[in-house]
Write a structure and sequence with these properties.
The protein has 243 residues and is mainly α. It has one domain: Heme oxygenase-like (Heme Oxygenase, Chain A, Up-down Bundle). It binds pyrroloquinoline quinone.
């Protein structure tokens, strides 16, 4: 009887161990060079090189980002089975939407839009929102709707990088665009502390809930994706400004 060929038993596969916490945090923070602080449009904004028209385009396009944040956070809530986290994300929605009309981050963004010379109507009807900006922001919301909730939360870790940039933005805008008053920048002055707290809170959650190497890799990829979203948003503003 012919002997049957010996087939080597597959080597047992062990999932790769997760990175130690500190290395995981270092991998996340290591994406800072991809943050939108380095985008040429932001550089020009901070250097005082934008025309009034470009500032208006920036504010009107970013309006779309601001107004979609609550829907992005609601998507996270709808996918998250952890009550403690849902409560925290509910606060984020209320921060932007306010408790009543005319309050909250979105209303403060609208105030900034008016300060740079946009009418309320042209902001709200979104006539200046470039297709690429809409695509980028919608991709962020879709990511939150369709990816596991920890990944969606990890994509918001750009907030780790934003406090320093926002602080600098307030100083630079006041220095370079003298027609803008400090109170017009209430969106940023009010946001700096909140965004610092949120960044820390998000990092803590991501570290606690990403317990396999796969989850850690997915969190790093989610943060890279979000950096791309922000860059794509500014690319769209930049190209609209050139038209
Ligand atoms: O001014 C900025 O540079 C900046 C950046 C970011 C960010 O990095 O995503 C946010 C904000 N601002 C911001 O104000 C904000 O509310 C916010 C929410 C989120 C988010 O992903 O959930 N990012 C940001």
């Amino acid at each position: 009887m012919p002997s049957s060929p010996t087939i080597a038993a597959p080597a047992p596969t062990h999932p790769a161990p997760p990175l130690p916490e500190q290395d995981f945090v270092t991998a996340l923070r290591g994406l800072e060079h991809r943050y939108w602080s380095s985008h040429p449009f932001h550089r020009r904004l901070h250097d005082g090189d934008l025309t009034r028209e470009e500032l208006r385009l920036w504010a009107a396009n970013r309006w779309y980002y601001q107004r979609m944040l609550p829907q992005k956070d609601a998507a996270i809530i709808s996918n998250c089975p952890v009550p403690e986290i849902r409560r925290l994300w509910l606060d984020r929605i209320v921060y932007h939407d306010g408790r009543t009309d005319g309050e909250g981050g979105t209303a403060r963004w609208l105030r900034l839009c008016e300060a740079v010379g946009l009418s309320r109507e042209e902001v709200l009807d979104e006539r200046h929102v470039a297709p690429g900006a809409r695509f980028a922001v919608d991709a962020y919301v879709t990511f939150a709707r369709t990816r596991p909730w920890v990944e969606a939360i990890a994509s918001g870790l750009t907030e780790m990088f934003s406090p320093a940039l926002m602080r600098r933005r307030v100083g630079d805008m006041l220095a370079h665009y003298p027609w803008i008053r400090r109170e017009d920048l209430a969106y940023f002055t009010d946001r700096i502390d909140a965004v610092s707290d949120e960044g820390r809170q998000t990092l803590d959650i991501v570290v606690r809930h990403c317990v396999t190497q796969e989850q850690q890799d997915a969190a790093v990829a989610a943060l890279a994706f979000k950096c791309d979203v922000l860059h794509a948003l500014l690319d769209a503003v930049e190209s609209a400004a050139r038209r």
